[in-house]
């Protein structure tokens, strides 16, 4: 889940029950994934130039410290992720979101054949950032490949090249349909979201309708009255019960959430 | 899950896939409860007079050390428990099984109104063992009440008195249907199992059919050939796919698994 | 360590290296206790009516999340505690500070003979708050005894009665010198600190010199220029290298840190 | 600490107090490093072809499960390691001993400039085992370099080549004195121990005197009477108080502990 908008208490975004578009939807998100007990993480922009991260290997619903922190932290840009491990160790360094400088990154999905391709992919990571990889997941590798291909300058192009590389290496290894992903990344000012799979059967991704439009639909909803015009949520599942609130990101697309007009464009891996 | 029989590798009892009555059923057990991520524990009789316990707050399926230990430990009497917390902290001291001297105890269910009754119940714990309580759960309290009422001398009578006390205190507080339980306890030579609820709607409990009888039903099953005659499993759910392998413990019953003839008798709380 | 003053980043109080009276002293504190690896905790007043707590059983210096949070949280009133366990389980519910409503409590020291006296002490805890005790330590018990004796109305009197009770019960059990303590408690507006031991040989406790006086001594110190006039630190050890910065709390004393004039008075247990 | 000899209860090797050469010395070992709270691990040969490992990030002295397991596991070959991290994450996959097939590996010391050299070293790891690296430490890297250079065939030669490579790469990077190490590795039948540093100032390493010789020195010591003739301990510090019990491994040496005559030979890195 990615939140971008007026500063909100994390508790209101990920724990508080019902009575608001956001809470409700997020709570449903959490509920839908409570069997994902392989760690969780939140990342947010607050004090200082770099985003903060709080990650843990215990199930989110059991983490008493998370409840405490969620009631103390306000942020205009929050990433929250619940992990279902796909073969790599359950350890903090493998939990999402990942951070590099001002950038956050989280990924749902997997790289098929990752164990087999790991060395070849690793060799494409820019040497100057090579040793900054802390964990052992395919998700972090994808992040560092994107960084190596210029994520901080042109995020969409960089992810297209990273995914293109993975598909190329997979092809060399005879591995079919290597990439399955929804990805979100941010630099504190904008959020980029991606939906793509080599097979063309990507897991779902949704973004919330423009708040000004939602206010017209639901003039009495107090949450919508308080939400800033720029408020946008990106989530894995069509949540909440307000018709018109959610829009599916099409297959092979990239979206940009930022001050001003957001954008949705095709995503085409570059080999 | 309680296992009593010829010494088995814990791995064969709780992790190994299919191909045997026991593994299969146990694996299913684990599978049926994988959303119970609030800690787990195993207890077994091995070296030394006291049983050993291994308990952890992380989900069982993520505990790499558990996999290691399961492949090293052989035991004729194993308790395994996966916890779904009902309001008390997720910490090792609240995980089952609990141990006192040679005794193990585990409980599925809950004491309704426990928070309200806690002090009154605690006052009934024998002062000499009072400070041995390490956690904060209703399950451990029930164990210590049973110990206070003579568990080590007459287990069934002691549990009847412990449950009777809880029902009495609940009645004083105006709390309906306070007890919901399946309980297993052992001293290294026998296992006692209980199924009871104040309301008369207890969660299920099953015990495995006598092995000599099962061998007649399934003369080609290699696991049954190797299993000792005394082998008995007590589980929460009717598992595996061998017709005739499982028998439901009736409502308000206590069973004794021990060398020689096992027994099943009515369970009647004593106020 | 207790901090009271102008809002500070927790990082500046417990992690940042040297270059300031506060950081330096606190860093020394942390250094002096790095062998205390039995958990740690911080408690602070921030958003909402209740203080927040972050506690963990891992050593503080290894907790990556603590570093993250410390760089995000600003507070005018911080408690920080590193635990050296004295016989009870290493679990989050046994870490300091403890919280009840708006109150925080932390304790260094121990109740000798606690295991033996536990039941008798527990019986004196007010029934309405009895079930709120979450852990198994002597420190939390002392907190709940103080709460039972009116901590929220008259903190010093309540602690005097709690300590008096412990000494009374110890006497009944023939246990000599039961209490060894430095305690700090707060309600968000004031901090109370106590130094006492039954034997008259209490562990040390120090409070920082009035900031206006320190500025006269060190007119060039930038930290002192920025620190608010009400800033006060209470620590276990005489830290930092500014002569005149620290004052020992005398044996059997209680101190009050609050807006306006602080106070230091004799502490006399009441049986 | 590495133990090789007649099967012993792990508890007797790493926890039991005094009264025996072994316990005493090991207990001292543990005591000498209790400030090393960055995880610990044990590895042992027991059931099945591969050694078992139990590793955890919490301090060893707080791990209740370790105490349980130590009282249940008997082994003729035990590795025990307490970690003091040198810059990489405190996570299970970074704890020692490391395992690959039948091999265990543990390391005290560090590779200076590891962050800088990491990529170059990683490229020398045999592609077929590349993805088996689970953590991020210099210690595990050294293990996989040694495996890549033939550890399973000629352990001493392989470690000489691995260390030689590190020194070569360090030289290319202008990093002085890159290697500081005592290393132990085993395959279940023999133990190899190494003491080496590029600077020629290695941390200490000791091995126990031949048991038949020790029995002559201490004819009344019951532990020595029970210890098998092949019993040998390798430890970091000269422990215990039996004069003649410990012998320092010389600078730049490798030792082999195995059935029959042990051996001590010079260790010379091969570039």
UniProtKB/TrEMBL annotation, chains A, B, C, D:
Annotated PROSITE patterns: GATASE_TYPE_2
Signal peptide: none
Keywords: Glutamine amidotransferase
Record keyword Cell cycle present: no
Domain Glutamine amidotransferase type-2: 1-271
Entry annotated with the keyword ATP-binding: no
Top-level lineage group: Bacteria
Pfam families listed in its UniProt record: GATase_4 (PF13230)
Protein name: Class II glutamine amidotransferase
């Amino acid at each position: 889940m990615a939140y971008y908008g007026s500063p909100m208490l994390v508790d209101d975004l990920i724990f508080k029950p019902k009575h608001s578009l956001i809470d409700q939807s997020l709570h449903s998100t959490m509920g839908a994934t409570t069997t994902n007990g392989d760690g969780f993480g939140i990342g947010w922009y607050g004090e200082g130039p770099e985003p903060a991260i709080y990650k843990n290997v215990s199930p989110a619903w059991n983490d008493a410290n998370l409840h405490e922190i969620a009631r103390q932290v306000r942020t205009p840009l929050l990433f929250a992720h619940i992990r279902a491990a796909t073969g790599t160790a359950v350890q903090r360094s493998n939990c999402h979101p990942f951070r590099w400088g001002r950038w956050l990154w989280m990924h749902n999905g997997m790289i098929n054949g990752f164990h087999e391709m790991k060395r070849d992919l690793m060799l494409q990571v820019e040497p100057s950032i090579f040793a900054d990889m802390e964990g052992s997941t395919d998700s972090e590798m994808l992040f560092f490949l994107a960084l190596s291909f210029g994520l901080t300058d042109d995020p969409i192009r960089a992810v297209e090249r990273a995914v293109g590389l993975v598909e190329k290496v997979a092809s060399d290894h005879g591995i079919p349909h290597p990439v399955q992903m929804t990805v979100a990344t941010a630099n504190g000012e904008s959020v980029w979201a991606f939906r793509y799979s080599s097979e063309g059967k990507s897991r779902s991704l949704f973004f919330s309708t423009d708040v000004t439009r939602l206010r017209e639909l639901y003039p009495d909803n107090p949450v919508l009255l308080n939400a800033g015009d720029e408020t946008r949520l990106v989530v894995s599942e069509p949540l909440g019960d307000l018709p018109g609130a959610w829009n599916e990101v099409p297959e092979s697309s990239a979206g940009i959430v930022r001050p001003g007009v957001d954008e949705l464009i095709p995503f085409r891996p570059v080999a």
